[in-house]
Amino acid sequence: MKDRFVLIPNGRKIIGVVLSFFVLFTCAYLSFSIQIVKDVIISSNDDVYSAYYHGNTQKKRATIMFNVYWGNEYIDSILEILKKNNIKTTFFIGGIWAEKYPDVLRKIVDDGHEIGSHGYSHKDHSKLNYEENIKEMRKAEEIIKSITNREITLFAPPSGYISEEMFKACEYLGYKTIMWSNDTVDWRDKNAKLIYKRAIKNASGGELILMHPTEKTVEALQEVINRYHNNGFRLTTVGENLS
User: Fold this and answer.
1) d(CA 153, CA 147)
2) Which of 228, 235, 206 is CA-nearest to residue 52?
């Protein structure tokens, strides 16, 4: 009887520990799952809209993508590095930039890179209504298509600002909304080492690495490419990365 009396409380303790672990694990899992849902979905009534923050996470691919809205001083250097490494990637082009530098845009296309839209005038699309979103997106598409003869299927919202009205406009125009997993913030922080560090942080399959055509980006780019290649990643376009 004494032995049984001792074993019963111990068993309860073990069961309590197991149940506590199960509860904590379940809560952590649900919290993680909910965070993923919050990151990629905006919903209203029965409508659900999503953005891509990663490509296909099951394949060891990554994309170094460029949002282009100002300047042309560093585009050639970026193209040279990409060509030297046999990399095709995606450039999201602002409509005003395309109007100003059509020959540079043609060169990007001639080098075999994928073209997406970055809107016309870099507005905050979360503050635009449905019609204003359509107007901004369609104007950029018309300009880019007139220069490149390429259809637009990808849209990168300026500054990452999104809204239900923006998603509705993208759905109407047949665009996929592209965000990022790693933001180098190279437009603000002019530090090649910091850009490199942010670009390679927690690298995993399907990374979408956001860059811009800046001087320090050019300095960091080859090292970023080396790091991904040396770790077995294939660097490719956004479109292929999503597949």
Assistant:
1) 16
2) 206
If you search the block for the tokens 């770790």, which residue do you land on? 231
Question: Can you say whether residue 148 is alpha, beta or left, with left for phi > 0 and alpha for psi between -120 and 50 degrees?
Answer: alpha
C-beta of residue 131 within 8 angstroms of C-beta of residue 169: no
Q: How many angstroms separate the CA atoms of 174 and 65, rounded?
A: 20
CA distance 15 to 108: 63
Between helix 215-230 and helix 192-200 the angle, nearest 10°, is 40
Tokens of 83: 């060509």
- 231-to-26, 39, 182 alpha-carbon distances in Å: 33, 27, 17
Going 25 to 26 to 31 to 35, the CA torsion angle's sign is: positive
DSSP run (H or E) holding 48: strand 47-52
The SS3 assignment for 178 reads strand
Q: Which of these, 70, 170, 185, 174, lies nearest to 128 by C-alpha position? A: 170
pLDDT tens per residue, the chain (243 residues)? 333 323 334 444 444 434 444 434 433 433 333 232 334 455 555 567 899 999 999 999 999 999 999 999 999 999 999 999 999 999 999 999 999 999 999 999 999 999 999 999 999 999 999 999 999 999 999 999 999 999 999 999 999 999 999 999 999 999 999 999 999 999 999 999 999 999 999 999 999 999 999 999 999 999 999 999 999 999 999 999 999
| 150 vs 209: CA distance, rounded Å | 23
